[in-house]
Write a structure and sequence with these properties.
The complex is a heterodimer of chains A (299) and B (164). Chain A has 299 residues and is an alpha/beta fold. Chain A is built from ten helices and ten strands. Classes of the chains: A alpha/beta (299), B alpha+beta (164).
């Protein structure tokens, strides 16, 4: 008789769990990069499922579409991309258009930094590197999810309001932290040209051996001339330390550090955030860690 | 015999759960207790004076330099720069009631001023006479933000009042 009661209880629990699981299925957002996915999670909470095509540490410039990506996008209700060709050969746009899914381009309304290279002018896509621009990304995502789910618009806006206040706190904290580094020592040498917005906001000069992209797009990639200029820049400004990036092979920068006689100051999160459980697993976390790494190396 | 008994029990329990859920869904919506609000007498106005030039907030969903809300409704929203020292007037605040009334005010200092605290002076007037006067302060670099409460005394009508 005891086993009958137990069996009934188990069956009852299972049936209740099944009834609960039969709730309305969650809408799905598929994002190109880890940063965009983090912004989306902050806005939609548990109401949507947020997936990122890039895994932590992967380089969006070099990423090539895999068979599973099309399936992922096919199941999406909304797709989010960074834009301005951060996604090499516009792979996210290609996927979304192929599946006929709505696509939000997060850099929309950002004031672009223009870069020149190989006789062409283009917009620097690494716009998320200032909390102000991150706020614009958040605005665009709120607009996108609210259009698809207008019933919960106020909820999305409320979460976003809280999050952009955290971005404000991050910005003010960053300004205070960099105050320790003398103005003439504010030179940021990194693997590729990802930190231009960050440098403009916080008063740094930037230099890197690769252009805006680690790929072979116009204005991207490593050239002997860029490499030479980076070494010269390090020597000219008496730079104390240079930084490798978590999503870029550090080999070249280590060679440059040897050539210029400087230290590697640490690893910076650039085009991708850190893995789950790491300090850089969120946007605010990755920015905080970058600031602390830079201050420690250059102060 | 035992598996059949278990199956019967499961069916019975599931049936009860289903019946309970249907019963719950069929219940009329809970009636909320209606609060009777009495409109406050007199004409209420407000003036707001900034000690800094307010600029559109880069850290908000809708860049706004000055925002005043009353009961969730916008009384004032400025998207352009608001100059320091010039009082902004809000005439005839609608919906003031007896009891506690709450205003929310947010004004954003220029983004490059990260070291200074800033202030906003707010006055609420009834028929031109100040009833509340407060100064809100900000953390350095952050917007001046907060709630202002205006308590309007409840008018008690006595039997004597009726006699006259």
């Amino acid at each position: 008789m005891k086993s009958v009661v137990w069996l009934s209880l188990v069956a009852f629990s299972l049936s209740v769990a099944t009834l609960q699981a039969q709730d309305e299925p969650k809408k799905v957002i598929v994002c190109s990069t880890t940063q965009v996915a983090d912004f989306a999670r902050q806005i939609v909470g548990d109401r949507w499922e947020v997936k990122s095509i890039l895994a932590p540490g992967q380089d969006p410039h070099l990423y090539e579409i895999k068979p599973g990506d099309a399936k992922l996008v096919a199941e999406a209700d909304l797709c989010l991309e960074n834009g301005w060709h951060l996604e090499g050969k516009d792979w996210m746009r290609t996927l979304a258009q192929g599946a006929g899914k709505p696509l939000v381009t997060c850099v929309t309304d950002v004031e672009p930094l223009s870069l020149e290279g190989d006789g062409a002018t283009f917009h620097d896509p690494h716009a998320w590197f200032t909390p102000q621009n991150a706020t614009i990304f958040v605005r665009n995502i709120v607009r996108g999810v609210s259009q698809l789910d207008p019933v919960h618009r106020v909820e999305y806006e409320s979460r976003a309001e809280l999050y952009v206040n955290q971005l404000r706190a991050l910005h003010l904290w960053t300004v205070r932290q960099f105050n320790i580094i003398p103005a003439e020592k504010r030179v940021l040498v990194t693997s590729h040209d990802a930190f231009n917005y960050f440098c403009r906001e916080y008063g740094f000069k930037s230099a890197s051996p690769a252009g805006w992209s680690t790929g072979d797009e116009i204005g991207g990639g490593v050239t002997p001339d860029r490499r030479r200029r980076t070494v010269e820049s390090i020597k000219q400004h008496g730079v104390k330390a240079i930084f490798v990036e978590t999503s870029v092979n550090p080999k070249l920068l280590r060679q440059i550090a040897d050539d210029a006689g400087v230290e590697i100051g640490g690893r910076l999160y650039s085009d991708s955030m850190g893995p789950p459980g790491s300090a850089g697993e969120t946007y605010i976390g990755m920015m905080r860690e970058n600031v602390l790494t830079i201050v420690e190396a250059l102060k | 015999m035992r598996p059949i008994l278990a199956l019967l029990l499961v069916v019975a329990i599931l049936g009860l759960v289903q019946a309970y859920m249907k019963f719950q869904a069929s219940l009329p919506a809970t009636r909320s207790v209606q609060q009777i609000e009495t409109k406050a007498e007199g004409v209420y106005t407000a003036d707001i004076t900034l000690t800094f030039d307010a600029e559109p907030d880069a850290f908000s969903l809708e860049p706004t330099s000055l925002l005043v809300l009353f009961r969730g409704q916008e009384l004032l929203r400025k998207k352009a720069t608001v100059k320091a020292g010039t009082p902004l007037l809000i005439t005839d605040i609608p919906g003031m009631t007896e009891g506690r009334n709450e205003f929310y005010i947010k004004a954003t200092p220029p983004e490059d001023e990260t070291e200074q605290s800033r202030a906003v002076r707010v006055r609420v007037l009834r028929d031109g006479i100040p009833v509340v006067e407060r100064t809100l302060w900000s953390e350095p670099g952050a917007p001046v933000e907060g709630a202002i409460h205006v308590d309007v005394p409840r008018v008690v009508i006595t039997e004597d009042d009726h006699d006259h």
